[in-house]
Amino acid sequence: MSRLLPIALLAGLACAPLLAHDISGNWEFSVDTAAGSGSPSFVFKQDGEKLTGAYTGLFGKAELTGTVKGDQIDFKFDFSYSGQSGVAHYTGTIESEKKMKGKVEFGDMGEGTWTATKQVAAGPTTAGNSLQRWRPR
To answer: What is the pLDDT of residues 20-29, one digit of tens each?
Structure first.
C-alpha cells in the first residue's frame, strides 16, 4: 500500500494541467486581421467549463457564450457591422492565468489571430475606448 501513495500523487500531478483555468474577469485583446487590427475588451464569467460574458469593440457590444476545457478556450458572439452580420468565433489556448492567444473567424468577413492579457481590477474599465483604437491596414 505504501508503494501506491507515491504513484497516486504522481498521477494527480500529471493530471493537474488538465484542470480548467478560471479566466473570470476583464481582458484586453489585440486582434490582427488582413483588414486591420483592433483592441476589443472582454469581460468573462466562468462557471466550471461554462463561459459567459460581454464583448466591447468595433462591433459595438455583445453577449458571448463558450467553454473552457483544460487550457482551451472557445467562445462566440453575434455581430453586425457595415450592413453585414455574422458570428465572431474565438478559439485559443490559455497560457497562464493572465495570458491567452488564438485564432478568430468573423464569418464571411475574414479571420485573424489574437493575444489577450487579463487586466488588474483597479477602477473603471476603459472598454468604451476600444472603438478608438482600431487601426486599419
So the answer is: 589 999 999 9
Residues forming a β-bridge with 50: 47, 67
Q: Give the C-alpha separation, 110 to 25, whole Å.
A: 28
Give the residue extent of every domain in the chain: 18-132
Cα 71 to Cα 25: distance, rounded to the nearest angstrom = 16
Kindly report the length of the chain.
137
Distance CA 13, CA 77 (A): 35
CATH of domain 18-132: 2.40.128.120
pLDDT in tens, 43-73: 999 999 999 999 999 999 999 999 999 999 9
End-to-end CA distance of the chain: give it in Å, rounded. Answer: 65
pTM: 0.76
Place of cell 493575444: 115
Taking the C-alpha atoms of residue 91 and residue 43, their distance in angstroms, rounded to an integer, is 16
